Amino acid sequence: MESLEEFYQRISVALPQNINSDIGHFNIFKRGDHLNCSTLPYSRKDYFKITLLKGKNRIHYAQKTVQSDKYALMFSDPLVPYSWDSLDGKKDGYFCIFTESFFHYFGKVRDYPVFKPNQNKLFLLDEDSLIRCEKIFLEMEKEINSDYEYKDDLLRNLTLELIHLAMRMEPAKESYIEPKNKKNKISTLFNDLLERQFPINLPYERLELKNPNDYSRLLDIHTNHLNRILKETTSKTTSEIIASRILDEAKILLKHSSWKVNEISYSLGYEDSAHFINFFKKRVNYTPQKYRTLENV
Q1: Tally of domains within the chain
Q2: What is the CATH classification number for the domain harbouring 258?
Q3: Is the Cβ–Cβ distance between 1 and 44 less than 8 Å?
Q4: Where would I find the HTH araC/xylS-type domain in this sequence (predicted)?
């Protein structure tokens, strides 16, 4: 997951002073000024993003692929990995980024459909909608550079205006993908989502995706369908793959960290450490503490 700090480093912009502010973070950019590539890598971000795309672009998010031939408004949230490819090399448009805490006392931004994992993220714009979107982004740019004491309120209102503008429009249609390629893509996306949760570096970090339903929800497919695809492409069930990766991480933490067993249990998504101990012993034949002792001899 790309953090805000890594984002600013990637676009070669100095970190703003308020990046870790309690009231959250918001910023706006012109795409041509800061993006010198025609492809955005497939990844999750630690922030929300709304992008006005101009030109011909192919966008990938979750297991969907959609295309915009002229103008589009793209919504990105931290849970869903995405990427895009410019098909004509154009880098025009705007984008704004903000953290969930920027809306903390003003409602839950995740409640809007455009920021829910299984909803549409790309909306095609006609000329009139393009003018309205550009006007909103220009207002954002004006306010963020102003000294007005309550400019954050205006920036929230402008962000909500973009959200409501999109929700009134028809989303872009998903591009056709050959069934065989789609299965491989879903399998790859599943593994990408799984691996991006690791390594766990701090005891208070937790797995966000712990069971097959969590993954199928993000991939916008039925859990049974995901299971059939993974069984066909990997010869393992969804639960077996998840359990195997959690077990690998548990062994690493037991061997190379000084965390207590209950801290490891919590970070791996177990509310009750007894369940984690049973899970580990069933697969390794030792309790976590016994395994740690044997590995560190």
Answers
A1: 2
A2: 1.10.10.60
A3: yes
A4: 184-294
